[in-house]
Amino acid sequence: xxxxxxGLVGAGPWADIFHAPMMAAGPETQLTAIWARNPAAAxxxxxxxxxxxxxxxxxxxxxxxxxVFAVPPDVQAEYVPAAAAAGKALLLEKPLGLxxxxxxxxxxxxxxxxxxxxxxxxxxxxxxxxTFLADVQSKRPIGAIATYINGAxxxxxxxxxxxxxxxxxxxxxxxxVIDIFDAALGPVVEVQGAGDPRSWFGLTLRHQNGxxxxxxxxxxxxxxGEVTGVRVFTDQGEVTMDFVGAFGDPxxxxxxxxxxxxxxxxxxxxxINVNRALYLQTLLDKAARSAGI
Length: 293
Description:
- The protein is α/β, with parallel strands linked by helices and 293 residues long.
- The chain folds into two domains: 4-122 and 250-272, Rossmann fold; 123-244 and 282-290, Dihydrodipicolinate Reductase, domain 2 (2-Layer Sandwich), CATH 3.30.360.
- It has eleven helices and twelve strands.
- The protein has helices at 13-25, 39-48, 57-61, 73-85, 100-113, 127-137, 162-167, 169-172, 174-185, 252-266, 274-290; strands at residues 4-9, 29-35, 52-53, 66-69, 89-92, 117-119, 141-149, 188-196, 200-207, 212-218, 227-234, 237-241.
- The strands form two sheets. Strands 3-2-1-4-5-6 form a six-stranded parallel beta sheet, with helices on both faces.
């Protein structure tokens, strides 16, 4: 099949490490153009992957069939409406916006436009994670504990970006943790939070089936590498999994690319879509409000 022409919004570290090489690798996609608020960064990244840097977001829309977003959440929320109105398929980042209001507006315009969309909850594209979830779902879960602790926003950290330093772990790590808890143990009916996401934040979730899950989150703790993992306790014993880490499962990009392309060709949104992301962000907002944030 002819590769799908993809435009990339953003040229920062994560776009360089993950999004651009993923879409340039093909064969399902062709990275054709890049636009970023920093034109020099866009030029450099485009040259690296045989794409072209364009001068405006609207030129990017004219250069592609689908858009991949690798920008801060508030920037994503600003530009998605025009992309959805232009009928472009969308590969979105989490969180959808910096506030629940931004996330709701973004989800509304994407749903109203009816465009194919998918969200980069990277753990969910790992075969190891999918096997773990299937294992847990075949049993009766009682409770779960997860940890997601690192020093990514400490000075000199690769992910010490302004929005992460301001908002902390809840909006960055929280979607991954709640998504796994919800997928493994079932729908969340109550969520409580405590602490400061800029240093250390604790989550407690109650699930529809009565199971309880808990997790500490931190982007600002000096540890060696990352302290991550999930332990689910079931009626048949314990099931464990490590999160894939900052750079993800090395096989996940090919899965993301293939499933995004398949969704575009079928005309149907991926299961991990804007509504899933909005559900998670609604729970994160409740956790923040319960902690007085």
